[in-house]
Each structure stands twice: as C-alpha cells, then as structure tokens.
Amino acid sequence: MMVKLTSSSLSLKLSTLLLLHLPSTLLLSPSLIPFSCLLLLLLHFPYSLNRNRKHKRNRLKRIISSTASGMGSDDDDDDMDVDQANIAGSSSRKRKRGNRGGGGKMMELFEGLVRQVMQKQAAMQRSFLEALEKREQERLDREEAWKRQEMARLAREHEVMSQERAASASRDAAIISLIQKITGHTIQLPPSLSSQPPPPYQPPPAVTKRVAEPPLSTAQSQSQQPIMAIPQQQILPPPPPSHPHPHQPEQKQQQQQPQPQQQEMVMSSEQSSLPSSSRWPKAEILALINLRSGMEPRYQDNVPKGLLWEEISTSMKRMGYNRNAKRCKEKWENINKYYKKVKESNKKRPQDAKTCPYFHRLDLLYRNKVLGSGGGSSTSGLPQDQKQSPVTAMKPPQEGLVNVQQTHGSASSEEEEPIEESPQGTEKPEDLVMRELIQQQQQLQQQESMIDEDEKSAAFEIAFQSPANRGGNGHTEPPFLTMVQ
DNA sequence: CCGTTTTAGAGACCTCCGCG
DNA sequence: CGCGGAGGTCTCTAAAACGG
C-alpha cells in the first residue's frame, strides 16, 4: 500500500516534470533519451498495479528493488534490470532482502535525476541566450561600422564636388576675363548662374548621371555651367575670307575644330570607308553646306566657280566623303532648290525634319546673307521675312549671345524670328555646330580689325573647343573650358 | 505582325535664260 | 558662244499609312 501511494505520487511528479521539461530536454540533449525512456516506463506502472493488484504487488516490489539496486551502479542498464526482474522469478528469495527502504532511495534518485535534467536545461538555455545576445551585438557592431563608412564616403564625395566646383568657377573667371579682354565687351552673366551658390549637397546618382551624359567631354562635364555659351559666341574663329590660299581655311578649320570634325569623321567613317552612295548622308550634306558657306566670301568676285567646287570636292574627300565637284555642285543646287521650293509653298514640314535636317541651316545662312545672291541660289524666291539688310545680318556679339542663349533652352523672343521650324529641344549637335560656325564667321568680320593674332588664335581655340560637346537638347553642359586644361 | 500601298524627299538629267 | 544659275521633270527610295 505504501508502495502504491509512493508510486502514484512519484508518477504525478514525474509526469508534471516531463510535461514541463521533457520535450526540450529531448530536443536539446540526445544523451538524455535513455533516461527519459525510463521515466516513461515508470509512468506506466500505476496502471499495471491497478489491473493486477494481488498478483503483481510482489512483482512490483521486486522490480523496484532490483531497479534501485541496479541504477545505483549503472544507469544504462535500467531496461535490462526490469526484464531481469520479470524473468528471474526463481531467485525471489535473494531479492527480498534487498527490497527494504527502496522507495526512499528511488525518490532521492529521481529527484537527483530531475535536478540534473533541469540544471542541464538551464545551462543550455543560458548558453543559447548568450549566443543570441552575442550575435545581436555583432550585428549591431557591423551596422554601426557600415554607417560610419557610408558617412565617410558621402563626406568625401561632397568634398570632391566642392573642389571641382571651385576649380570650375576659377576657370570660368579666368576665361571670362580673357574674353572680356579680347572682345572689349563686358559680359553680363545670368544672375542665376553667376551668383548661384553651390548647392549644399547633391545626391551622387544625379551627379554621375550628368557626368556620363556628354560623350566627348570628360573633365569639364562637372562644371555644368551654361555660362560657357557666352564666351563661345563672343569669341570668333577666324576663317579669313580673303585668304590668298584657298585650301588653308579648311585645313585650319579641321585642325582647330577638333571635336565637331571628330564627330563628323566618326559619323562619316563608316560611310566613307565605302564609295559614297547616291544618297547623301546627313553628315555629308552638312559638311557640304559648311564648306560651301565657308567659301562663299572668297568666291564672290570673278573667281571661276569650277575652282570653288574643285576645292570643295577636295575638302570633302579630306573629310572622307568621296564626291566629285560636279556632284557637289549638283547637290548644292538641289538642296537650295528644294529649300526654296518648300519655303515658297509654305508647306507644313514635319517638325523633326528628318529628311531635310539642313533646312534650318540654310535658313540661317540666307537670313544672315552668308548665302546672298550667289552660291548657286538666289534670294528671289525667299519669303520676305527672310530677306534682311546686311545690317541685321551682321549682328553684334550681343545678339549672338542672345542667339546662343536661345540655343541652350532659355526662352527669349527677342530674335527676329525663330531660327527654324524645329524646336530648340530637337536640335542636334551638328546643327549647333553649324550655327556657331556661321555666327562666328559673321562676328569675325567685325572683330578682325581689333583682335591681334595671338588673341585671335586663343579665341579661336576657345571657341572651337566646345561646340560638339554642347549636346542637342540644351541639357548637356557646354564644356568649353577644355582650353584651360 | 507582316505585306502592300501611298507619299514625300531626293538624285539625276535636261532645258532655258542671262551675262560677259 | 561658253559659263553659271534656275527651273522642270522623271525616277528611285525610304518611311509612313493601312489593311488582313
């Protein structure tokens, strides 16, 4: 009876302990599994006692006593002890002696075992929590280090940007002073640009995007100052109209106009490698207009036109376009013819002017009297608004400045007429180059007398450094500060 | 998406006219 | 009469438009 009570109370304790601790114990420590199996086996005993009380009471006593004696020496042999107790019925007399006081020992034994389990589990929980805390601390340390690195990087970038901005500002100042010295005019800088304080910080993605945009300018692209358009227009390249040697102006142009020529050469390289087809590529037409308009002043006298077209053909061949003089002359007449035809008919042309990209150039040439009565065309068919007096054709530098400011997107209706039908936003780089060339030629005639040779060459260099980098839409910055470097 | 049709741009050639 | 410029016309071609 005492054994029964003891067993039932012990089973209650063990079941509670097992419910509380056994799952985690089993999970955390595989070495404790045999011991847990023993506990489960012990939980089964009350049912057995209830079923066969009379028959199995002695048997239970034997089992418990044998188990207690066996577990004292070796925990691993618990199952074997139970089986041995069941089997060894013949040696019951020996085991009766050892049965006295077995309940108290078992209690102590199981309590000790439970305590061990709980201690082990607590130790494992502590180590687990310590590991978690350690990992969390490491993660926080890494985050802190990364934040510090990011802050340092941003600070470095900001500093570099500030330095670049300062350098470009100093270059601008030097160039503007030089231009003022050359031209004798005081340059009115746009207040938003001249007095613009540097922004406190620009996010790096925007800066990198802007730097990557202009393909030809590398170091100057950071300056991002449309200011540079002003000196470009006030400094004039000197293609001398009355030069004794007809070939030299083109050579000079090609030497001192590296970027536009490079552009055109790149554009024409794939075309010029092959014999020129019947169709004139756009770059070729533009080159023809450029050459023809550039030679116009030299052939206004009694010079035979055959020489002119031979020279143009030679220049075209130098640029990679294989066109003979007859073809050049024919093409020139055709484009003028078509231009006038369209102008007379007032036909609505598509704004993109994809098929006739040189219209605005011709428009400008006619308007500026670069192409006057000669040049394979007459102004008889032109609309009246395109006929201007030579006074308006020879614009002072300030008008050129206005023109370029329009080119760069600033809205100004002061010009007598929009340059052409195409909006400013769709203008292409070569168009800008051509327009600048024309304006430079006009302004040159005015300023030739007041510019000595050294200043002229310097101005020429400055002016021709930039046009190809100005981009077509006015969004890219004109990096004319290449000359400073 | 693909084939066909339409349309405008452009090349080539010719003729006419003015001028020296 | 030769030369240069202008005008006209034919033809080709590429892009746009359109329909199945």
TrEMBL record:
<feature type="compositionally biased region" description="Pro residues">
    <location>
        <begin position="196"/>
        <end position="206"/>
    </location>
</feature>
<keyword id="KW-0812">Transmembrane</keyword>
<dbReference type="InterPro" id="IPR001005">
    <property type="entry name" value="SANT/Myb"/>
</dbReference>
<feature type="region of interest" description="Disordered">
    <location>
        <begin position="374"/>
        <end position="434"/>
    </location>
</feature>
<feature type="region of interest" description="Disordered">
    <location>
        <begin position="188"/>
        <end position="279"/>
    </location>
</feature>
<feature type="compositionally biased region" description="Low complexity">
    <location>
        <begin position="251"/>
        <end position="278"/>
    </location>
</feature>
<keyword id="KW-0804">Transcription</keyword>
<keyword id="KW-0238">DNA-binding</keyword>
<feature type="compositionally biased region" description="Polar residues">
    <location>
        <begin position="382"/>
        <end position="391"/>
    </location>
</feature>
<keyword id="KW-0805">Transcription regulation</keyword>
<dbReference type="GO" id="GO:0003677">
    <property type="term" value="F:DNA binding"/>
</dbReference>
<feature type="region of interest" description="Disordered">
    <location>
        <begin position="465"/>
        <end position="485"/>
    </location>
</feature>
<protein>
    <submittedName>
        <fullName>(thale cress) hypothetical protein</fullName>
    </submittedName>
</protein>
<feature type="domain" description="Myb-like">
    <location>
        <begin position="278"/>
        <end position="336"/>
    </location>
</feature>
<keyword id="KW-1133">Transmembrane helix</keyword>
<dbReference type="GO" id="GO:0005634">
    <property type="term" value="C:nucleus"/>
</dbReference>
<dbReference type="InterPro" id="IPR044822">
    <property type="entry name" value="Myb_DNA-bind_4"/>
</dbReference>
<feature type="region of interest" description="Disordered">
    <location>
        <begin position="67"/>
        <end position="105"/>
    </location>
</feature>
<feature type="compositionally biased region" description="Acidic residues">
    <location>
        <begin position="73"/>
        <end position="82"/>
    </location>
</feature>
<keyword id="KW-0472">Membrane</keyword>
<feature type="compositionally biased region" description="Low complexity">
    <location>
        <begin position="220"/>
        <end position="235"/>
    </location>
</feature>
<dbReference type="Pfam" id="PF13837">
    <property type="entry name" value="Myb_DNA-bind_4"/>
</dbReference>
<dbReference type="GO" id="GO:0006355">
    <property type="term" value="P:regulation of DNA-templated transcription"/>
</dbReference>
<keyword id="KW-0539">Nucleus</keyword>
<feature type="transmembrane region" description="Helical">
    <location>
        <begin position="20"/>
        <end position="47"/>
    </location>
</feature>
